Amino acid sequence: MFGNTAHAARAIADGLTEVGVSVDVVDVASAPEELPADLDLLVVGAPTHAFGLSRPSTRADAVRQGADPDHAAVGIREWLGAVRVPAGATTTVGVFDTHATQVRWLPQGASSTMARAARRRGLSPAGRHLGLVVNDVKGPLADGERQRATEYGRHLAEGRRTAAER
Fold first, then answer.
1. Which of 31, 47, 65, 83 is the most core-located residue (most Cβ within 10 A)?
2. Where does the record place the Flavodoxin-like domain (predicted)?
């Protein structure tokens, strides 16, 4: 909505590419509903709205706060509800969320909701979730959060390598 999750996604992609993983960063509005059969790692991120994934009403509220209206049409909640994983695919999913500094600790963030939705769609969790702090609602990412995101990308790449060795 404000670009912070996209910045975090690019930092995670940097961590993955640093260790040789080929990466495409895609906005949810352009994400395919049918995942490629050979996709071995999917990383999904979203902003935390009202302690979970955004809904049309929370995205509309973000637009009232100055967010880009072009990002209000579809969210990760809807995409995960529609995504299809090919039979026999062994796609692992890593999840991350962004949330404002006013709420340093969340009882539940968007990443927990995404992980449950991904499991229901047949995706295997890649382990720990990542919650990244944004300064205020509009951002930017708080000090050190871009580095944490890059490290998460490296962590996911290592887990991918370990799974391939099994």
1. 47
2. 1-157
pLDDT in tens, the chain (166 residues): 778 999 999 999 999 999 999 999 999 989 999 999 999 999 999 888 766 677 777 687 878 888 788 777 778 888 999 999 999 888 999 999 998 875 555 556 788 888 988 999 989 888 888 989 998 778 899 999 999 999 999 999 987 655 544 3
Helix extents (H) in the chain: 4-18, 56-64, 76-82, 110-120, 145-165
Q: How far is CA 103 from CA 96, 109, 132, 150, 151, in A?
A: 16, 10, 11, 22, 23
4-165 CATH fold: Rossmann fold (3.40.50)
The dihedral region occupied by 85, where left means phi > 0, alpha psi between -120 and 50, and beta the remainder, is: beta
* Residue-range domain boundaries for the chain: 4-165
8 vs 31: CA distance, rounded Å: 17
Burial class (CB in 10 A: 0-12, 13-18, 19+), 73: exposed
Distance CA 61, CA 57 (A): 6
Q: How far apart are CA 115 and CA 111, in angstroms?
A: 6
